[in-house]
Amino acid sequence: MKAQISKRMVDLEALAMLTLVRLGLSVFGHKRIRPWVARLASRDGAAVPSPMVCGSVSRMARFIPRATCLTQAVAAQAMLARRGDRTLVSVGVRTGNLGNAEAHAWLVRGGEVLLGGSAEEISSYRPLIAFDPSGAEVRGR
């Protein structure tokens, strides 16, 4: 029973974080919400495994209109940072089937893709920039 309550609580936190990040991105843009996300991420959170956090973010994103890959990656990063888990939100581009540029964001920890696709899928993107939980930019990760 305790695992179910914990899962529900993580789902609710993911829903709230996704909503806040989505609204922030829509109204203010990515650069302006980074300091806010960093402050939010600095608060302590209960210990929860990263797969549970990322799974909750993926599931709850279905309930948030236009919860893009960037919205999901930033929300999961903030939730994991609250638990002392340092990750990078990476943003990259690739050429699509029609010759158009396709952008994508994913969450990485120590070279392991936590959210946003498999390592094989991500390898088709050319990384442009990455952000740590404090909002600091790390180029080409």
How many distinct beta strands? Answer: 5
Number of helices: 5
Mean pLDDT: 90
The SSE order reads: HHHHEEEHEE
Alpha-beta classification: alpha+beta
User: Oligomeric state of the chains?
Assistant: single chain
Number of domains: 1
The coarse silhouette is globular
Secondary structure layout plus pairing:
Blueprint: H1 2-27, H2 30-41, H3 50-60, H4 69-81, E1 88-95, E2 101-109, E3 112-115, H5 119-122, E4 126-131, E5 137-139
Antiparallel strand pairs: 1-2, 1-4, 2-3, 4-5
Helix pairs in contact: 1-3, 1-4, 2-4, 3-4
Architecture overview:
The chain is α+β, with helices and mostly antiparallel strands and 141 residues long. The protein has one domain. Helix content is 47%, strand content 21%. The protein has five helices and five strands, in the order H-H-H-H-E-E-E-H-E-E. It has a five-stranded antiparallel sheet with strand order 3-2-1-4-5. A hairpin with a 2-residue loop joins strand 2 and strand 3. Helix 1 packs across helix 4, helix 2 packs parallel to helix 4 and helix 3 runs antiparallel to helix 4. The protein is globular and about 45 Å long. The N and C termini lie far apart (40 Å). The model has no long low-confidence stretch (mean pLDDT 90).
Give a quick rundown of the structure.
The protein is α+β, with helices and mostly antiparallel strands and 141 residues long.
Features:
141 residues; 5 helices; alpha+beta; 5 strands; five-stranded antiparallel beta sheet; globular
